[in-house]
Structures are given as structure tokens and as C-alpha cells.
Request: fold
Amino acid sequence: MNEPDILYPAIFVFSMLLIGLVLTMWEFSRLQKRKQQMQEKGGHVANREFHASRDNVPNVSRF
Reply:
């Protein structure tokens, strides 16, 4: 194989990796800002998520 045959796909893969890394960092910063805003409003995010997930579980009775 020639060097350009390996170089061009490697550049493409590396650029996709960088884009994914940047988008992941952006998403985590958005989550942190959202959590901070929810705490400032007076509600605890983890507590609300717990109650929301608990409400979605069906109540199954054995009797």
C-alpha cells in the first residue's frame, strides 16, 4: 500500500474522533449547567430523577 492510501483514511478517522470528543465535552458541560440551574431553582436533580423513574415502574402484586 502507498502512504496516501493509509494517510487519507487515517486523517478522516482522526477528525471524526476529534469531533466526537468535542461534542462529548459540550454535552457534559450542558448537563452540568442544567444541573446547576435546577439546584438554584430549589429542586435536587437526582431526587427528581429518582421519583420520575420510580413512577414509571409498574406496581406488580403477587396476590
